[in-house]
Amino acid sequence: MRSLRVVQWGLGAMGGMMARLVTEKEGLNLVGAVASRKEKVGHDVGKVIGLGRETGIQVKDDILDVIEESKPDVVLHARNSFLSEASPEIRQCIMHNVNVISIAEELAFPWATSMEEARELDGMARSHGVTVFGTGINPGFVLDLLIVTLTGVSARVDKIEAKRINDLSPYGPTVMRSQGVGSTPEEFYQGIKDGSIVGHVGFIQSIHMIARALNWSLDEVVENREPIISNVLRKTEFAEVKPGMVAGCRHIASGKVKSEIRIVLEHPQQICPDLENVETGDYIKITGVPDINLQIVPEIPGGIGTAAIAVNMIPFVCEAKPGLLSALDFPIPRSLKCIGD
Amino acid sequence: MRSLRVVQWGLGAMGGMMARLVTEKEGLNLVGAVASRKEKVGHDVGKVIGLGRETGIQVKDDILDVIEESKPDVVLHARNSFLSEASPEIRQCIMHNVNVISIAEELAFPWATSMEEARELDGMARSHGVTVFGTGINPGFVLDLLIVTLTGVSARVDKIEAKRINDLSPYGPTVMRSQGVGSTPEEFYQGIKDGSIVGHVGFIQSIHMIARALNWSLDEVVENREPIISNVLRKTEFAEVKPGMVAGCRHIASGKVKSEIRIVLEHPQQICPDLENVETGDYIKITGVPDINLQIVPEIPGGIGTAAIAVNMIPFVCEAKPGLLSALDFPIPRSLKCIGD
User: Fold this and answer.
1) pLDDT at A1 over 80
2) Measured between CA atoms, how close is B28 to chain A, in angstroms?
3) For residue B110, which phi and psi values (nearest 5 degrees)?
């Protein structure tokens, strides 16, 4: 089987990880890379992503040039979270007849927020004979795909409650701000109001994906963001939280079906949860026949998990029928073999 | 969408559960039932499976008559564990152009033990335009499908170790005998030798399924069965185990890849594990990048879990391309909606 030709679009922390993984996997061939930051453009991608060797591929700043030159089977898109930004970029790839895998959170189940846009992307992808797919650890795996998979052994599902408790300590100032870390409770609520504190992007997508899989008709999804107020001093390289200040955002979303709350997803994100004896992990509780209680402790790390599933899905996406697809349309994911393994 | 017409073949404990589930699910229609035990034949299936109502469907003893009369989309086959017994029965259904879902353990990945037979079943299914699929909780889910799914977020997989620890206490005399419960250690080893004590049927299938998914080329699968010797008195309705006697079978299987053990599956089955502080559960440990540690405590119950996944897969099997398929070929499983839900 010939190698699949992959272009990496976006070379930030996530995009860099994805590009590295592509070079490590059997059957994949990194043929191009696009970055927007000037200091990366013009250099060998091997240097930019820390491969420790030259690849002969120069980082460019124009996706269309790169597509034209390198004729990829798929573009890995890692540039933004929201459809409003991701869609115009994905459309460029579709117009040039290239499959797209994106880690934009809203693309994991775009029908949730933007039915119209999803229909247009789907129609466009079909008419160009390509597949568009959004994935990631969450949305895309822990709080949706894994839950749906578990219901495969359910005779009846009454309620789904799941939590992903993680530790923001390794992250930089942008994440700290978007989760309200280090703010006062008043500043936190103000940030929620003005949109500068967002919490998790992906609950609506996960809840709609679960509901679609179970054929439940959702009345509404309600989201709630509360400050996690620290009782102790918490410190990281980029944040300091005194007792009484905000260590992160407890973001909860509920899905109502026939006026009853049947899906509750929770994703509290904070720095140093261990200082208050909070154990990080992924927790899924399905009430039904049978009850199922799953935990993954510690949680599956978000960065490498997202990069891995995006790369692991490449062969499936290249083989799939054309259109805008979701995790519900693909075979169970699996790890691609590494070179030399 | 029209309802899918389902015939249940086999009305033992498992088959009865499956038939009941079919009657509870939207989009499925139980149109026939076949039993071999005389006391069930001729009665309304609703009575035989404890539905608490008549269905108008009489239990018959001849599968071909039932297929002829009821024109099913799929036969649910729940009669045996081994391909040598299941295959001739499944071939009858294929010859009559009916899809088959079987809970025969060896059919969960028949290429593992019987490449020739698997090829023949596949060819026959293709030429008759039907799909044949083997499933269940294990093999079929906990120690294979779920493991493979988790590797979807793996950048690299070095080793897989998984355990399913369950409690045999509710089971009857047949299961007690096949796991050696109540025997002396000497009788246990004798039973292993003469084939009367079998342990778990399914390890070879699970290990081959995982290896196929990860594109690992297996050298060999080694199985080992040891007696679980009780330190305390354990008693159930059908068994009594004095200290020093056998409470069950610790069955372990390893898959070697390039002379290295990279898959280890363990399924100790015993009565009253709680009496020696053994917690039942499903445990999966993936060593790699990242490490993943999953537990489901208590374990997903085997009976209802097997019935559920067999029934939940019906729409996928009826829509699939023809041939002999495995869990690796289907979209992620999911629970079918119950009537009135």
Assistant:
1) no
2) 14
3) -65, -20
User: What is the distance in angstroms between the Cα of A328 and the nearest Cα belonging to chain B?
Assistant: 7
The ipTM assigned to this model is: 0.97
A290/B293 Cβ within 8 A: no
- Which residue in chain A is spatially nearest to B27 when comparing CA positions? A215
Chain A residues within 8 A of B337 when measuring between CB atoms: 214-216
Minimal Cβ distance to B301: which of A290, A297, A300: A290
B51 CB burial (10 A radius; 0-12, 13-18, 19+): middle
What's chain B look like in SS3?
CCCEEEEEECCCHHHHHHHHHHHHECCEEEEEEECCCCCCCCCEHHHHCCCCCCCCCEEECCHHHHHHHHCCCEEEECCCCCHHHHHHHHHHHHHCCCEEEECCHHHHCHHHCCHHHHHHHHHHHHHHCCEEEECCCCCCCCCCHHHHHHHCCCCEEEEEEEEEEEECCCCCHHHHHHCCCCCCHHHHHHHHHHCCCCCCCCHHHHHHHHHHHHCCCEEEEEEEEEEEECCCCEECCCCEECCCCEEEEEEEEEEEECCEEEEEEEEEEECCHHHHCCCCEEEEEEEEECCEEEEECCCCCHHHHHHHHHHHCHHHHHHCCCEEECHHHCECCCCCCECCC
Residue A127 pLDDT greater than 90, yes or no: yes
By C-alpha distance, the chain A residue nearest B291 is A300
Mean pLDDT, residues A19-27? 98
Task: Tell if the CB–CB gap between A335 and B157 is shorter than 8 Å.
Answer: yes
Of B157, B213, B300, the CB nearest to A153: B300
Q: How confident is the model at residue B167 (pLDDT cuts 50, 70, 90)?
A: very high
Q: Looking at the partner chain, which of A148, A308, A335 has a beta carbon nearest the beta carbon of B334?
A: A148
Residues with Cβ within 8 Å of residue B78, at least 6 apart in sequence? B8, B9, B10, B12, B14, B15, B18, B102, B103, B310
Question: What confidence tens digit (pLDDT) does each residue in A288-316 have?
Answer: 999 999 999 999 999 999 999 999 999 99
CB distance B140 to B108 below 8 Å? yes
Q: What is the pLDDT of residues A40-50, one digit of tens each?
A: 999 999 999 99
d(CA A28, CA A26): 6
